[in-house]
Amino acid sequence: MDYLIWAGAAVSMAGLAGIIWCILAIAKAKRAGLDDAALRARLQRVVTINLGALFTSVIGLMMVVAGVMLG
Predict the structure, then answer these.
(1) pLDDT tens digits for 2-21?
(2) Nearest by Cα to 50 from 23, 10, 11
(3) How much is the pTM?
(4) Which side of the chain, N or C, has fewer Cβ within a 10 Å radius?
């Protein structure tokens, strides 16, 4: 079950990269000095990507746990 552990680690790292991208995108949006409506629209888009990245990371961690328990 080593392949499941390594695949889960890769999926989890992809989710973590997405979360880091969201942090950087929000910091960039706040520094841009946008008006309230534009900032809200950009943050709303980033929140949906953040939820997807969080879900991807959780699935990867579940794969790792399943691989450890089965192996």
Answers:
(1) 999 999 999 999 999 999 99
(2) 23
(3) 0.85
(4) C
